[in-house]
Design brief:
Blueprint: H1 30-45, E1 51-58, E2 61-68, E3 84-85, H2 90-103, E4 125-126, E5 129-130, H3 133-137, H4 164-173, H5 188-201, H6 206-218, H7 229-233, H8 255-258, E6 261-262, H9 264-275, H10 281-290, E7 309-310, E8 317-322, E9 327-333, E10 338-344, H11 351-362, H12 380-386, E11 388-393, E12 396-403, E13 406-411, E14 416-421, E15 426-429, E16 435-440, E17 446-453, E18 456-462
Antiparallel strand pairs: 1-2, 1-10, 3-6, 4-5, 7-8, 8-9, 9-10, 11-12, 11-18, 12-13, 13-14, 14-15, 15-16, 16-17, 17-18
Helix pairs in contact: 1-11, 2-5, 2-6, 2-10
């Protein structure tokens, strides 16, 4: 459910609540496709994704383009009705559910999280300063990225076995190490907990709350957690970053952080509601969730609305998401009256740049098709010199391993991914636009690794 704000940092005129019940591919304007095809094609030619659906809102006109195929053995081309796991874009839905609950007077943004926990489970306080609901949505709660009591019986489906009892046990026993607002730390735990607390406040489940308060009013007929048989037939199968078959994720307890499945048609309708909010209580909630509620705390942080990150232009709202076999990116710009969504059934953050390039194109900025690095071969003897642990901060450690001639890198509390060589010392991710450069001393020993992402360089010193 990763987002770029974590360590891997960046319509036919319809009534807003009207459903888009059929694929929008039939209304593709040829000139727009001619502009997007050259931007999308490198992602296919370089085996970055198996398939993807690209949705564009421009001057209130929705369009969806499909590329690639479902899988190596399934030649169906994704379209506006193809279902995907949208991962952490779910957090934007949870932010809107929070705003809706405020508008309906169920909660306030300043409510302490403890208020909506079962009696006896409320300990989310640091030096008499409680975590508030708004802090959970804007990643300044002080909670870690993930709970420490996740047992992960199946690493390929890591959230499936985490129960509500586990969550309440964690919040009952966890000791906060800092006050709210002291640091921005992207947290699946915080937003997953927020989803549960909102469900508690309205005496329902997160999935039912989503259906009643957002899906039904906005007529998002394919935005769901539990798939129907028809939706399951339209679900593009998941793949890892190297395009190998992966596993669909179940997220029963931290659902508000990343459990939702949807398609391009629905996500465009959702984006349209943000460009032109309806005259209703839900429209008021949309405006509340669009509003900036948290300014950056440190250099490199993004300002935040409820669930939304603000881009560097100070206006565009965005969120991306990733599960074990999917990646998604959504950008909404009121200043351009435009939105872009890219959904793929391959777990790679490379498509974030594609979505950004399409939005730049909509703004009239010249955009060139992307050129991808080609990996070079590096001897295993050299890889073994990099094996070890590298500390950026006490709770942020890179663990580098070698497996069957592949260099693998994990980060504290996050999955392990393969990295690929540009040279003996410089390696790049395929799951996100980031590089690692290993630093060698005169004796030929690796002493540090430098992370380069979003124009920022950070060095982690070797500790093992």
């Amino acid at each position: 459910m990763r987002s770029q704000s974590s360590w891997l940092h960046l319509v036919v005129s319809i009534t807003i609540a009207a459903a888009v019940t059929t694929s929008l591919l039939a209304t593709e304007p040829a000139p727009l496709r001619a502009k997007i095809d050259p931007l999308a094609q490198p992602y296919l030619d370089n085996d970055i994704v198996w398939g993807m659906a690209i949705g564009v809102l421009q001057d209130d006109q929705p369009t969806v383009f499909g590329y690639g195929r479902f899988s190596e053995t399934d030649d169906r081309v994704p379209d506006g009705q193809t279902m995907f796991e949208i991962g952490s874009i779910t957090k934007v839905l949870t932010g809107l559910l929070l705003a809706d609950a405020v508008t309906q007077d169920y909660v306030t943004l300043q409510d302490p999280a403890n208020k909506w926990l079962p009696e006896g489970d409320g300990t989310l306080t640091y030096e008499d300063q409680p975590i508030r609901l708004v802090d959970l949505s804007t990643h300044v709660s002080g909670l870690p990225r993930l709970p420490t009591n996740m047992r992960r019986k199946n690493p390929k489906d890591p959230y499936a076995d985490y129960t509500q009892a586990d969550l309440y046990e964690f919040v009952r026993t966890h000791k906060l190490s800092r006050a709210r607002g002291a640091k921005m730390e992207y947290s699946n735990l915080a937003v997953g907990l927020l989803g549960q607390l909102l469900a508690n406040a309205e005496k329902t489940t997160y999935e039912q709350l989503l259906k009643d308060r957002l899906v039904s009013p906005l007529k998002l007929t394919n935005t769901t957690i539990t798939l129907t048989d028809d939706q399951r037939r339209r679900l593009a199968p998941p793949h890892t970053a190297d395009r190998q078959p992966a596993t669909n994720w179940a997220i029963p307890t931290l659902a508000g952080a990343g459990a939702v499945r949807s398609n391009c048609d629905d996500v465009l309708s959702f984006a349209a509601a943000y460009l032109h909010p309806p005259e209703s209580d839900l429209g008021k909630a949309i405006e509340l969730s669009w509003k900036v509620h948290q300014q950056p705390v440190a250099a490199g942080d993004f300002a935040m609305a409820l669930g939304w990150h603000l881009a560097r232009d100070g206006s565009t709202r965005w969120h991306n998401g990733q599960t074990g076999g999917y990646h998604s990116m959504l950008l909404v710009s009121r200043s351009l009256n435009a939105a872009v969504v890219v959904l793929t059934n391959t777990a790679t953050g490379e498509i974030d740049k594609l979505a950004e390039d399409i939005l730049r194109m909509q703004a009239g900025i010249p955009v060139e098709p992307r050129r991808f690095d080609k990996a070079v071969s590096v001897e295993r003897e050299i890889m073994l010199k990099y094996v070890g642990k590298y500390q950026l901060t006490p709770d942020f450690i890179f663990t580098v391993t070698e497996s069957d001639g592949r260099l693998m890198v994990g980060v504290t509390g996050q999955p392990t991914f393969e990295v690929f060589a540009r040279s003996d010392t410089e390696w790049f991710y395929k799951v996100v636009d980031a590089t690692l450069t290993f630093q060698m001393n005169d004796a030929g020993k690796c002493t540090a690794v430098e992370l380069f992402q979003n124009g920022v360089r950070q060095t982690a010193s070797r500790v093992e």
